Amino acid sequence: MSVTGRVLFPLTLCLSVLVAAASASASPRWRQIVAPHFVVIGDASPSAMRGVAEQLEQFRAIFERLLQKARVASPVPTRVYLFANRARFQPYMPVYKGKRVDVGGLFLPGRDANAIAMTVEDEQYALPITYHEYVHFIVDNTLTAVPVWFNEGLAEYYSTFVLVGGNRAELGRPVANHVQLLRERPMMPLAELFATTKDSPHYNEGDKRSIFYAQSWVFMHYLLMGSPERRPQLFAFVAELARRVPPTEAFRNAFGAEPATLERELRRYVHNLSFKYELVTLRDPIVPDSLGEGQPVEEADVEALLGELLLRVGRTEEAVARLDRCVAQFPASGAVLASRALADVHRSDYVAAAPQLARAAALAPRDERVLFWNGVASYMVLATAGSQAIDERERAAREAIDRALVLRPDSPDLLAMLASLDARNPDTQVRARDRWLHALQLAPTRADYALGLAAVLIALGDQVAARNLLGPLAGAHPDEGVRTRARNLLAQSARADLDKREAATEGARPPATEGADLGARGGRFIPVLRELGAGEERGEAMFEAVECASSRFVAVFLKDGQPFRLWFAAFDKVDFVSYDQGASLPPITCGPRPRHEQVLVTWRAGKQPSTDGDLVAVEFLPQQPR
Question: What order do you get walking across the sheet with 162-163 strand by strand?
């Protein structure tokens, strides 16, 4: 099924022929209620719309408490389509193999806005999984490199949120099917749970996935509700992640224990006769009546939003046919014309979309959705246009983005587009730096923003700041493309430093040991990553210790959540390389490392017992400043 987002609470597979999308004008008048973080639009009663807005706002407020020191990032607004009943929602449900899939609701992330679609009838089913998906949205935009178990366990825990009064809510009731499964089936070792990624069998395969979700939930429940001493440690773990500390090191720093210790505690907890839950009192509850009756929405605007909803659920042909009729019916509606252009945007045909969106922006100069997409399309046409009329296209893109920023000044997407344009010209690179910084503050987990900022810092000559950004990305980011680009920029930064030094010393090369004291081997700052030799492999790891015995040395790393032991004959036989001239590394000697450094480790197959191979090289990346 081609749908971007998550389908919530599948009910039954309807075998009847699809019902054509009915016109919104056939339904009761649509209204819109604007809450601080959600916009609810629908044909439900005003009281029902206020109730959904209240529950979502209270949920967000309670979830923010957990993140504490982390600045909660919500870079795009969230629009809630609330239908009075299932019959009115059915024309906008997804389809699979030509048949409609009846669902209780949808959560659909988007570039300009998230969309939640649900019915009053199915609210009790749709809201818990809406909470689950909204937790993912906030976590993914607030914390970097979050382990999958943490993200899913937290989302499952908070999906049990129930508002029981104007200022009180229940949170953390046990999930019965999770408890039953964990009591009937063996649990995963915590080391295996921690090592699970979105590509792992435990995240993707039937029964394994069920165990993974259940154990992630119960581990989170134990940390939050089952152990008074562990709860503050979980908050410390979140704070470590917010500071971009690698997850394995963050876990050890926060909990002060190895996974095996918590594993024993968790097994005992699963077999408890009862589970606690919490009753939370809200400090500043939203009073539903304060949201008012809402404002009526014009028919053309309703049609525009419903047409966009059809696009989002993958019913593109129906959406285009409907929006073409709407353009003919409402030729002066910028909202309708913009939604029609989004069909071309979904196909990445920005050349076709741009003139429609420019006209839409002229027709609706105060519609932030219209102006946002006009800015995006103008920028994308410039980015893919080659050298033809480049100056004219750039002026048009800047004008469109500037107009959109007036209505949406805290859009990281718009700021990033302007920053990338400013970065082209040496005279505007300082402004580019400031815009990248602003965008990254609004969306701190966007690796592409961090890479853009690092590139302009290199151009401005601030190599230390650039390498501080790039080090964690090069060593720990889950996306190989991001790691590769970060490493390339590290090499570019190193070359820029060497060029500057050579110019200052009239061609003299910098001393080999500058910036690091590595004991037996001098750390050397080189412009490119060390090339792999025949039979060598390289991977990211945390450097933990060096074990020394007579004529035997073993370097101990933590790689993919597991100990990784590599033999070497002598310190001077290993290539220790530093990419960080801004900080001095302690000497490499026998014993635990004073701090666990993020490194690239290179090895080859070996024959020494109780090891994973022979150590060839250790490349130290710039460490995230504490």
Answer: 162-163, 168-171, 278-281
CA 619 to chain CA centroid, nearest Å:
28
The answer on pLDDT for 33 being more than 80 is yes
Please give the share of the chain, as a percent, with pLDDT higher than 90: 40
6 and 137, same domain (yes or no)? yes
What token pair was written down for 186?
A: 């063996």
Q: What residues contact residue 543 under an 8 Å CB cut-off, 6+ apart?
A: 555, 557, 593, 596, 597, 599, 601, 618, 620
Task: Report how far residue 126's alpha carbon sits from residue 86's, in angstroms, rounded to the nearest whole number.
Answer: 12
Three-class DSSP category at 377: helix
Whole-number Å distance between alpha carbons of 221 and 214? 10
On whether both 118 and 195 belong to a single domain, the answer is no
What is the number of domains present in the chain? 3
The mean pLDDT of 179-184, rounded to a whole number, is: 92
What does the block give as tokens for 115?
A: 């969309």
Question: Between the CA of residue 578 and those of 50, 62, 334, 455, 599, what are the distances in Å?
Answer: 57, 44, 56, 20, 9
Domain that holds residue 573: 536-620
Residue 389, pLDDT above cutoff 70: no
94 three-class SS: coil
Q: Is 505 exposed, middle or buried (0-12, 13-18, 19+ CB in 10 A)?
A: exposed
Distance CA 427, CA 588 (A): 44
Neighbours of 245 (CB within 10 A): 25
Q: Considering only the C-alpha atoms of the chain, give the largest distance between any 2 of them, rounded to a whole number of Å.
A: 86
Cα distances (angstroms) measured from residue 269 to each of 161, 218, 219, 263 = 22, 9, 9, 10
23 and 123 both lie in a single domain: yes
**SS3 call for 277:** coil
Structure tokens at 395: 């002026």
pLDDT tens digits for range 521-544: 334 444 456 777 888 888 888 888
Residue 108, CA atoms < 13 Å, CB-side half-sphere: 25
Strands 78-83 and 168-171: unpaired
Euclidean distance between CA atoms 272 and 255, whole angstroms? 22
State the CATH number of the domain containing residue 1. Answer: 3.40.30
Residues 44 and 135 in one domain: yes
